[in-house]
Every structure is written in structure tokens, then in C-alpha cells.
Amino acid sequence: MSGPGRIMKKEIKELLTPATIVPIIIMAVLFASLGGAFNGVREQLENKPEFGLAVDDAGTFGILARESFNSTSNIIYNATSLQDGLQALQDGKCGQALVYIPGNYTANLMNNKTGWVDVYWMKKGTGLTASVQTALVQASITSMGKAVSTYMIVYGVTTNSSLILSPIQTYSTTYLNDKVMPGITPDQVDTVFTSSSLIVPLIVMLVVIMAGSMVINSMGSEKENKTLETLLTMPVKRTWIVFGKLAGATVVGLIVAGIYMIGMGYYLSSLMAGSTIDLAKYGLTLGMGDYVVIGVSLFLALLCGLALCMILGIFTKNFKAAQTMVLPVTMLAIIPMLISMFSDFNSLPLFLQIAVFAIPFSHPMFAFNNIMMGNYMIVFAGIAYMAVFALAAMFIAVYLFRKDILLTGRVRSAERKKGFSLINLPGWKK
Amino acid sequence: MFAVEVKGLVKDYGQFHAVKGISFDVKEGEVFGLIGPNGAGKTTTLRVLSTLLEISGGKVSIFGLDLKEQAGEVRKVISYLPEDAGAYRNMTGREYLDFMAGFFAPEKDPKKLLERGLEIVRLGERIDDKIETYSKGMARRLLVGRALMVEPKLAILDEITSGLDVVNAQAIRKVVRDRTKEGTTVLLSSHNMLEVELMCDRIALINDGVIVESGTPKELKERYKATNIEEVFVEVVK
User: Which residues of chain B have a CB within 8 Å of the CB of A245?
Assistant: First the structure.
């Protein structure tokens, strides 16, 4: 084999190891799952929106509105009075919205006045998926407005050009849990939610990756610089060595989280300076206790990440191998962060809910929205899960710290060593 | 009481038998050398005795302490210097000694340990420089100082002068010899036969995980009619 060929073969053999391949396969599987979730959003865009319709107007434009909605949407509930429609909305028969055409709708349009359409939104989720559903209903209303414009032009209902261009207006009322927010659209709520909840997932992701890398690199460095053996023979319990390393990385992780939080807090407050709605006015705000819960969730997620990295660090052979070992943890931190941008926990399909729940870092990422939406149960379940996960991971780390594998990396390394011994070479006389 | 008593020690790595039931003992205050070819099981034996590796079979006691059952207590009386040990490169020599001395508190005064360490390493003003700037000889002296400053009852030294020039090697051997005069028992391994002959009271030759010969350097030379230990070594492992 030629010189470059020999070098290439050596490089491939050195780089293409299970340690590099396995994380890539895991990453590919996770991305495939994520693709499935995104595909769900795309399918929603292709489907007709589903909502309830209450038409209290028997006039021309009332009939036109019903026809327009029937052609562009899937009307899952029909009513003639607002009271019936709202009851159906509360009962979950209207999906996420009830569009109400009031009794004076046709009369207003015929008298050169704007036709008001009331939309009652039942907000159950946040994120991109929920926004898509809202946008589809709004598109149906826009389409109905165009049908009104066309009718006005064809039948010469009016010569008022501005009315023809914009014959209808909507007034939104959003229901969120037991809160009623008149004049607020779900989009406006989403804007505030997304902006506020973005900061936690980002910080969790950055801190887990950074602090986790520190732990794995520290183990890789200890092994490469041959300082670990000396440390292990010191008169100190292995448990304390593990806890000492974890505590050091946790402190640094929390300092980093604090710095990021301050920076991103300023960044987001600048972005939100133009926001017109204040959710606190409707009782949608976090109390001190809620912030403590989010803080506990963040701390436990960090601890889970560090303990997991400590286990991975035990298997690392040197600093170079440590870089590869960080990859699975990085992916586990990035994936829930991406999911949290698109959807909230409750809107996810069951298999993704299970997968997301199993990733400990995901819990503080969804904690803000879950608390705002009143889903405390899932938040506390996540905290309990993370506590168990962190304890189990630390127990495993301490157990492995007492085993030969900490120094040998794997059993086969000793067998390889045998192969390099002169006394094992053929022809060696004993 | 023996400083070290090894009876039928076995160490397996999966299917590979690195140490196959060796037995030897080290008397208090003596320098005992473990020599053998590469892969013979020397370092594995020293790592087991240092509580780094688990015992697969047999029994080891150090100053009467059972290695398997009382590993924590054993660590208080031993000091291990691995062959290719390193130190934390971002620390200065003084910081490193101070950091290591802290592990022995409150039984031993860390300040006194540090003072003794500084005395052993004799790095002058360079003790306050980062370890990453040290030469190999300086780093090794620092590590020997770290191992001996705690006045261990048993010092386990693996290839103490490996890769060092003659001057540095001689200086380190002197440090170890001085320490034994103060009561430390030394168990060492080395490829340097001259070093072994100069330093050891007794020697055990290990080959393929088995002790094949042992005795004082004088006894071994007479037994094999050799002029030095190197000749004994070659004759035994042949």
C-alpha cells in the first residue's frame, strides 16, 4: 500500500471507533424522531382548520359567511346563538375556536359599516404547533372577508372603497385555563410565552453542554496527564472524589447559568419593550414559589447532566476521546430545546412525550410554560424523576469509580497489553 | 510483622491472567525490588497493592491491614508513585504539594508535610513556577517529593528514575535511600538492573505473572554465577 494509503488507513482506524459511531447513530435516530414531529406541523398546514361556528344572522352576509367557512374549513360544531356556541367551546366541541357572526352583521355591512366577527379562542397549548392552528383559523376568516368584498363589488352593495377592501374586523377573546382575556389573540399570548420561555431552554442547553464538557474533559485530562492514579491512592473516599468533582462543576455551571440569565434577561427585555400586552394583568404571572420550582428544576437538570457526564468520563481514555464523549450529552440537550421551541409538552404526541420526559434536561425547559398553563403535576413529576435520575447516575459513577474500569477503560485494553509483551511473541523462550 | 504479605495473589483482566498466584513478603524497613520483562505483571502487582485495582484472588495485607477489606486504611499508610505519573500542570510546584498534603489532614499537619516536601524536591525558586514549565527531571523530583513527604510506612515506587538522565536519577535514588533510613519501607519496580542492585535489600523476579526467583542481590548472583543482576535477569527469563 502507498504512503498516503497507509496513513489514510491508520487515520480511519483511529477515528472510526464505536465511541465516534454510536453517538452519531443515536443522533441520527433522534433527528429522525424530530423529523416526524416537524412533519406533523406540516400536515397540520395542509389540513383544513377545525373550529365551531355560531351564526346569529340570517341575512345575506350571514349565509355567505357560513358558505365561505364551510368551503375553507372543517366546521365541527354549528350553532345559531352565542350562548350555545360558548358552551360547546367550553365542552371542547369546537376545537380551539368559536367564530361568532352576530345578528347585526348583515345590517352593518349593508349600511356601509364594518361587519364585526367575534372569535373566542380556547388556548390549550403554546409554541409553533399552537400558532399554526391559530393562523389557519385566521386565514379562514380572511378568506371569508375576501368573499364579502367580492360580493360587494359584484352586486354593487356599496361604493365605499375602504369598506370593500376591508369589510370585516375581528374581535378576539382568549380563554386560558380559567382566565378570560378580552381583546387578546392567542398569537399575542404566544409571543409573550415564547419570549419568556425561550430563555430557560437556552440556558439549560448551554449550561449542560458547557459544564458537562468540563466534567468529561476533566476525566480525560486526569487520565491523559496520569494524575488520576495518584488521586485515587490518596486517603480519601472515592465517593468524595466523585462528589468533589461534581460539586466543582455544579458551582461553575450555576455561575455560568447566572451570567447567561442576566445577559439573556436584558436581551429579551429589550426585545419585549414594544409588547402591548401584560399577561400579569390577567393573573398569568409567576410567583416567587414558581421561580423556586424552576430553579430547583434547573439545578437538578444540571446535576443529572454532570452525573451522566461523569459516567461517560469514566470510560474516556484521554482528552481526545473526551471530546467525542460529549456529543451524546450535547444532542440530549439540544433536542428538547428545539422541541420546546415548536411545541409545549402537552401538545406533543405520546411517544415524544415519553422520549422528552426521559431526557432529564427537558424538564426545566418546559417548566415555565407548564407552570403558566397550570400544569404543576408534570413539573413536580419531572423534578421527582430528575432527583431519582441524578441519584442513580451518581450511585453508578461512585460504583464505577471503585472498579478497575476507571483505569483500564475497558477489559480488552489489558488483553491488548498482552499482545505487546515481548514474552508473548512467538519464539520467546521461557 | 511484615510490611507487606502477599499470598497467592491473582489478578485477571477478563480472560487474561496478568498475575497468576504470586506470593512474597516485604520486611519492615527494607527496600524490595520487583523486576521482570515488559508485561510480566510488575505494574499490575504494584497497582493492586496501591488499592487501584481489585484483587481477583489471594490475600494481601499491608502492615496487618487487609487490602480488600480495609482499602481506605491502607491508603493512609502507603504512598504510590506510578511509572508515568503526572502532576496538575496549571498548578505551581508548591501548590501541588500543598494540595496533596491537604488530603492527610487532620491526622498529619499539612504545613509540616509541605515543608518536608519542599525539602525533598529542592527546586529552589522554581517551586513557585507552573509545573507545565518543568523539565522531566524537575517534574519527577516533585512527584517523588509528593510521594515521600507524607512519611508513608510503605512507599510503592514504579520505575522511579524512568527516562531521567544520570544526574537526576542519582539525585532521586539518594532521596529514596534517605527516606528508608527514616523508617519507610520501599517496594519498587525497575528495568534498571544497576539501580535495583544498588538500592534493593531483596529482589523478586516476575515473569508471565509468576515469581520465578527471589533473594538478596548477592544470593542471586551466587546462585546463577553471575557478575551482576542483569545477567541473573537474562538467565532467569530465558
Answer: none
